[in-house]
Structure formats: structure tokens, C-alpha cells
Amino acid sequence: MAVGAVIFDFNGTLSHDEPILLALFQELFAEHGKPLAAKTYFDELAGLSDPEIVRAWLGADHPAVAEVIAERTRRYQALVADGSSVPEDVRVAVRYAAERVPLAIVSGAMRAEIEPVVEAAGLADILSTIVAAEDVTRGKPDPEGYVRGLGLMGGEIAPSDTLVFEDTEAGITAAKAAGMRCIAVLGTLAPERLAAADEIVPALDVGVMERLL
């Protein structure tokens, strides 16, 4: 099938940072008296937006929600704003795709987390748009982010011609609900949890891009 655009999830897909995210959430939630187990994070929270994770774990009416979201962003920036979480194989694959189709990022991460990383990784100039957590009212698994992202890419590309790369159930559900094809990348969740994707690949690399584009 023809591919008219490619959209990437960010955390765990472009940025290999899920262990970092887990550690940050564990630190912050422990500081606020509600420790988080790794299994619970991956079973219940991975793939949700940053604000949704904080609200889901601490409670939507917790007085420190905004503070925790801001501190989570600050600590993340301190660790990976140099682009080190984006492997070279991923950078090559993204550049290969950019030579052929428009690209975007749709993520549950905050824009202040995404932009420094893609800039340092040398990918910012080849992206058509970024849809971050603060750009939508409903995060993944709702399709709002993907619908918005495709619209910002010009509005002439059909959802069925859009290829999405994701690493979580929530992301796959969002992409499929938006009418897009979805490739799941291993690394965050077990393969059986990614079964709703159109295909599962072991890694995001130029070989995958050559085959799909």
C-alpha cells in the first residue's frame, strides 16, 4: 500500500527512554507518598500522556499534580536533552523516511520534553509538526492526537495512507481508531500486548523503512 506520511510516537519509539520514564515517575511518586512498581507502570500506565499518568496515580484532585508534571519534565530534560536517548539507527531511519514522505510526531509527552531531544538528535528540521500532550484534550488511546497531527500535515493525506510507529497498546489503539496503519516496535511491551498492530518489528531501523516505503 502507498504511504503518504509517517507519524512517530516519541517515548519508547523514537526516544528509547521508557526505563528513564519509569525511574522518574517512581522517584516523584515516592516523594509524594505513593510508590509505583515497575509492573504496575507497564501494565497500567505506559502509553498514556504525562498528565494522565500523574492524575491516574496520584488522583485527579491531588494538589501536587501540576507540580509533579513540571518537575517530571525538568528532570527528563536534564537527563536526555542532549539527544542521547535517540539511537543512531533510529536517526538514520527517520532521515531515510524524511527523504520520501512528510513526517510528524504525536506523543503524550510534553512539548518541552520532545523538542530539545529531537533538536539535539538532528531531526527537528525534517519534521512537519509535533503534537504534544498539551495540544489535545484527550490523550491516547483516544485518536485525537493522530487526527490533529495529520490535519496539520496539510489535510490532503488520507488516514489509510498514513503509517504510524508505536510501542504501546494505547498508542496502537489511537492510531487504528484514526484509520491509520500501525507498526508496533518491540522494546516497551511484550509482543502479545501489541497484537492489534498491523505488524510488529523488533526495531525501528532503515531496513524497516526501506521495506515499508
CATH architecture of the largest domain: 3-Layer(aba) Sandwich
Biggest beta sheet summary: 6 strands, parallel
Number of domains: 2
What CATH calls the topology of the largest domain is Rossmann fold
Q: Please, what is the CATH homologous superfamily of the largest domain?
A: HAD superfamily/HAD-like
- What's the arrangement of strands in the largest beta sheet? 3-2-1-4-5-6
DSSP helical segment count: 9
In terms of DSSP E residues, the strand content is 5-15%
- Succession of helices and strands: EHHHHHEHEHEHEEH
Number of strands: 6
Description:
It is a single chain. This protein has 213 residues and is of the alpha/beta class. It has two domains: 5-16 and 84-212, Rossmann fold, CATH 3.40.50.1000; 18-80, DNA polymerase, domain 1 (Orthogonal Bundle), CATH 1.10.150. 44% of the residues lie in helices and 11% in strands. The chain contains nine helices and six strands; from the N terminus they run βαααααβαβαβαββα. It has helices at 18-31, 38-45, 50-58, 65-80, 88-98, 111-120, 144-152, 169-177, 206-212, and strands at residues 5-8, 103-106, 129-131, 162-166, 181-185, 199-201. A six-stranded parallel beta sheet has the order 3-2-1-4-5-6, sandwiched between helices. The termini are close together. The mean pLDDT is 96.
